[in-house]
Amino acid sequence: MKLLVLGSGTSTGVPRVGNDWGACDPDNPKNRRSRVSIIVEADDGQRVLVDTSTDLRQQLLANDIDAIDAVFWTHDHADHCHGIDDLRVLRYGRGGPIPGYAASETVRRLRQRFGYVFAGQHGYPTIVTVDTLDRLRLVAGMSVEWTQCPHGPAQSTAFRFSSGNHSIGYATDFSEITGDLVYTMEGVDILVVDCLRREPHPTHAHLGMALELAERCDAKRVILTHLDKSMDYDVVAAETPEHVEPAFDGMVVTL
């Protein structure tokens, strides 16, 4: 399997508009962070995209991605879905729409806001067919497990993708470690986990919570994502255990 981190930043990215780098060293390219999104690739080369971030077009160009086999959404907040129109180009040349999946409430909200994507409009074809996760077990050569997580007053979906003997977990935008989340991520090879900052936050995991989840589920390798401007790459890498590291845009991990 292969993990590609398309974006590793918080909703405002790093730097923030105004060239605000916070505590991040602007001379380190690993501190330049677009909004969060990943691609997971199965051992047969099929790819799934998780979230259509606001920066999706540039992320696809930067990583030479011109095709995916399915798309998943964690939730409908702007930084996770407002790049949805950039899926149009990935629809070109396909025999049909891209399969899409999300939790039922996220599906409802996406349909409400982006109806043309899922139903076509004015002669343009449907870009994505979206369905709920309820009966989904296998997609793009990978088995899929999922669980809902508190995200402040909202909810976000965490995913685990498995192919052969390998597994990659993705848990971003959560504010509480639930028993179901620990169970879903138990023994995962790679855990990509929400880690907004060091101090607690009402809607996101902080560093201590991210490390707690990693320990409780016995993740073999941990990659911290959704990092804000207080989380300098080199500083965070130096203060975390050997099997834990901050994500960066364009990061590739192969199992």
Automatic annotation (TrEMBL):
TM ranges: none
Occurrences of domain Metallo-beta-lactamase (ranges): 34-226
Origin superkingdom: Bacteria
Record-linked Pfam families: Lactamase_B_2
InterPro entries: Metallo-B-lactamas, RibonucZ/Hydroxyglut_hydro
Protein name: Phosphoribosyl 1,2-cyclic phosphodiesterase
Organism (species): Croceicoccus pelagius
Lineage per the UniProt record: Bacteria, Pseudomonadati, Pseudomonadota, Alphaproteobacteria, Sphingomonadales
